[in-house]
Amino acid sequence: MCRSLSIIVLALSATIASAGDVKKIDFVHDIAPILKARCVECHANGKYKASVSFDTREDLLKSKAITPGKSAGSELIKRITSNDIEQRMPPKGAALDAKQVTLFKAWIDQGAAWEPGFTFKMSTYVAPLKPRAVKVPAGTGHPIDRIVAEYYTRNKVTPATIIDDAGFLRRVYLDVVGQLPAPSETKVFLESDAPDKREQVIRRLLDERRNYADHWLSFWNDVLRNDYAGTGYIDGGRKQISGWLYNSLVQNKPYDQFARELINPTADAEGFIKGIKWRGNVNASQVVELQFAQNISQVFFGANMKCASCHDSFIDNWKLDDAYSLAAVIADKPLPVHRCDKATGQTASPRFLWPELGTIDAKATKTQRLDQLAKLTTSPENGRFARTIANRVWQRMLGRGIVHPVDMMANRPWSEDLLDYLANYLVEQKYDLKKLMEHIATSKAYQAKPALQIKEPIGEDYVFRGPELRRMSAEQFMDAVWMLTQTGPTKQSAPVVPVAFASSVPTERQRMRASLVNADLLMRSLGRPNREQVVTTRPDLLTTLQALDLSNGAAVNDLLTRGSSALMKLHKTPDALIDAVYERALCRPPTVNERKVMHEALGTPMSAEGVADLLWVVVMLPEFQLMR
Fold it and tell me: In sequence order, which ranges of 110-157 are alpha helices (DSSP H)?
């Protein structure tokens, strides 16, 4: 495909990428234990000898002790390998051994990855467990906005202006149903002078049961590590929950019921708690029972139990006994405890993570224990349950959680009142997630222009300024391109359930959805995970592989080539085709300059190759790929 210089310049910013190195060093297990044992006594939690801080990755970088990607030039490596007793670190005790030095070198060379949200700085904050009543500030207007306005005043933040109608429409379509609005829908919305037209479109989209389910299926497949093919499905070591999950979304099943049916399931929903039975021998922390403990705690409580499945956690306060006690709930026989893959000689006894909320009877049958766990998880006294999902929904719709990261719910939220208000609202609405989404989407906080962060804020330094720019997910990108090009998957798998389109949905949006088919190589490249483990958020940064696949990949080239043929049959003149592409892709007409560049791309006469070039330019634009 031939692309002129002016076309490439127009799309250049979409191909800027960060390195996508494969991470081989595990910070939690390989690096954090050494830092904790040998470094943080002098370089963390308020004690920073030589002005070097290991509190966070950002603090370490500020100290200039390491240069990510360049271990040979890092001061840390020079110090831990020095033979000079005055220079060597750590100054007390024996020097680090060769294996530890090798780990540090590899960690730095691979980018010095750090567990999201982790810090060696001790926090005095204790996340509440039980629900907390919130007094919404007095005044008129949306309750969310009143809470946020008080926060803005306290933090001296100037509220962002409200996004225009076209930007709002594109944002809310992508957030609620994962699709771009059809040009006819955009036209009707922009021409309407109804004062409540935004509220109307939010409600209408939430009422599109199939499109809502098609979109949110991807989120829940990630979270519940459910897929249509992959590890374990062939030999019976894994079981799908696709039918149950899809129908639950179509029915808008209350979230507490949804959770109970996953924890104490019928046959069609049991695949989640069964996890994956791996072939051969596995580490003790990866047996099915420990997978159960890890998945339950991460999904429903935003708690990372992976580290505690091997030993007492280095990143939070969870202990080995906590992980094994939760794992014992599902065990068919006595569960021997292992520490770092070595048997301790002890046997785990079933126990809930927060015993103050209730007990699990060790003498009960497994089904009875699971029922007790399901009830404790969704108990009205368990505020962590509602807070966790409220935080996840906020993060999905505004780009960053009130608690960040979303799987570190013990961290301090930037607004405790807002988090508790949303959690309480969800409970009051009988755990109706659609009502929570509607409540968020109708606020000015959601409808504001994106906030541009100059740098990634760390921990409690973060200040909320409004929604953040977000990339389309792999499925949103594919759905948008299929709609734009009037095409679809080349090798279509059978959908999870028969697709039925509502009559009110325009033909342009009545398409096979990417969430319903097996992932192809392009979707994998764009971030759709293999779902062998829980994934609650996908990476935000564009990788080198993604940039290459988008700019010069065979899959994109084939898709746009097929699309060019389809569009040339529908639009006989260059201007008609240019207008159609811009209205579908960007929800606006082209500017005078853009039209001139696109005419250049199309050539004279208009050719299929020129149309493909035009499509490539548009889908490479940040305006297309980003949710603003």
Answer: 143-155
Rg (CA), the chain: 26
469 vs 420: CA distance, rounded Å: 25
Containing 93, the helix (H) or strand (E) segment is none
Highest mean pLDDT, choosing among 113-127, 508-522, 587-601: 587-601
Three-state secondary-structure class, residue 468: strand
CB 170 within 8 A of CB 628: yes
Torsion angle in degrees (nearest 10) through CA of 463, 121, 52, 455: -20
Q: What angle do CA 368, 369, 375 make, to 5 degrees?
A: 90
The type of residue at 380 is P
- Give residue-wise pLDDT tens across range 551-572: 889 999 999 999 999 999 999 9
**Residue extents of the structural domains in the chain:** 1-18+541-628, 27-109
Q: Which residues contact 526 (CB under 8 A, 6 or more apart)?
A: 473, 474, 477, 478, 546, 549
Rounded-to-integer distance, Cα 167 and Cα 395, Å? 19
pTM: 0.88
Residue 182 CA to residue 586 CA, distance in Å, equals 11
Which amino acid is residue 148, in one-letter code?
A: V
**Are 192 and 204 in contact, with CB atoms under 8 Å apart?**
no
Residues 6+ apart with CB under 8 A from 142: 442, 443, 444
CA distances from 321 to 8, 289, 327, 347 (A): 57, 13, 10, 10
Determine the angle formed by the axes of helices 183-191 and 574-586, rounding to 10 degrees. Answer: 70
Mind listing the pLDDT tens digit for each residue in 114-152?
877 778 877 668 899 999 999 999 999 999 999 999 999
**What are the residues whose beta carbons fall under 8 Å from the beta carbon of 274, sequence distance 6 or more?**
238, 239, 288
Name the β-bridge partners of 18: 543
Q: Tell which residue, 231, 198, 144, has the closest CA to residue 421.
A: 144
Contacts of 282 (CB under 8 A, 6+ apart): none
HSE of 357 in the Cβ direction (CA atoms, 13 Å)?
Answer: 22
User: From the centroid of its chain, how far is CA 561?
Assistant: 31
Long-range contacts of range 18-23, CB-CB < 8 Å, 24 or more positions apart?
A: 18/541, 18/542, 18/543, 18/544, 19/69, 19/111, 19/543, 19/544, 20/543, 20/544, 20/545, 20/546, 21/110, 21/111, 22/110, 23/110, 23/111, 23/113
Residue 181 has which token pair? 């609005």
Token digits for 337? 């405890």
